[in-house]
Amino acid sequence: MGSPKSPAADQTLRILGLLASSRGPLAASMISQRLGLPRSTVYQLLAALQDHGFVMHLPEERRYGLGIAAVELSGAYARQEPLARIGRPLVTALVDRVRQSCHLAVPHGRDVLYLIEERAPGSPHLVSDVDVRLPAQLTASGRAMLAALPPSQLRALFPDREAFVHRHDGGADDIDRYSRLRSVLDATRVRGYSVERGSVTPGLASIGVAVLDHRGWPVAAIATTFAEGAVAEDALPALAAEVQRTAETLSARIHGRSRRA
C-alpha cells in the first residue's frame, strides 16, 4: 500500500510542474483551468510558492512564472550529477551481462558528451571516453537520441549540409545530409535501437538506446560498442534487448517515460 498523499503538497507540485513545462508565465485562471483546481486554492498556493522564491509574480502581465529558487534547484540537480550516479551501476551491470564495453552519453547541441565509459576486459580501445564529445549523427548514442526528437527540433539542429561533421570516410554508414539522417533515424525508430558501424572508429560497431524523461524527451542514451564481426548479425537483437532493458531502468529511476508508453 502506498503512502497517503498530502493534497496541498500534490497540488503545489502540480503547479510547479505545469509552470516548468509551459513556454512562458501563466495566469492564475489558466493554471486553475488546466489543473482542475479551484481558483482560490491556486492563489493560496501561488502565494506560498512566491514567499519561498519558487514562483515570481509578473504584475504587469498578471501572470506567474518560475522563481529563482526553482532555478537553483535545477543547478543543484546538475551539480549532483544524478544521471551519472544512477547510471553508473546500471552500465557496470550491463557490461557484466553482455561482456562488451558500454557507456552513457548526454546530448550537447549537435554533439554527444560521454559521462560514463565502462570497458569490458580485453575490449578494443575506444575514443568515447568520459568528457569526450563526438558528433551526434555519427554515434549510436547520438542517433538513438536524435530519433526521439520531433522533426522540427531535428531540422533546427541540422539546418544545412555544413551542420554535418565527419571524422573520416565512413562508407555506407556515413551521414552527410539531412535526407540520409532522416532515413537512418526512421529505421532506428522502427527497430527500437540505433546501429552504428565504423562511423566513429573503423572496425567497431555500436548499438544505442535513448533514455527518456517524463515528457518523452531524450536526456541520455546507453550504448554498447564491440568489434565488427564479434557479434553475429542474428545476435544483435538479443544484445539490443539488454541495452534497452538498462535504458528503461534508468528512465524509470529518473521518473521518465517508458519507450513502450
From TrEMBL:
Please identify the protein, giving its name as recorded.
Glycerol operon regulatory protein
Kindly give the Gene3D superfamilies that the UniProt entry links to this protein: 3.30.450.40, Winged helix-like DNA-binding domain superfamily/Winged helix DNA-binding domain (1.10.10.10)
Function, as annotated, reads: May be an activator protein for the gylABX operon.
Q: Which domain of life is it from?
A: Bacteria
Can you give the residue ranges of the IclR-ED domain? Answer: 69-256
Which BP terms from GO are recorded?
Answer: glycerol metabolic process; negative regulation of DNA-templated transcription
Alphabetical keyword list: DNA-binding, Glycerol metabolism, Transcription, Transcription regulation
In terms of SUPFAM superfamilies, this protein maps to: GAF domain-like, Winged helix' DNA-binding domain
Which GO terms label this protein's molecular function in UniProt?
DNA binding; DNA-binding transcription factor activity
Residues of the HTH iclR-type domain: 6-68
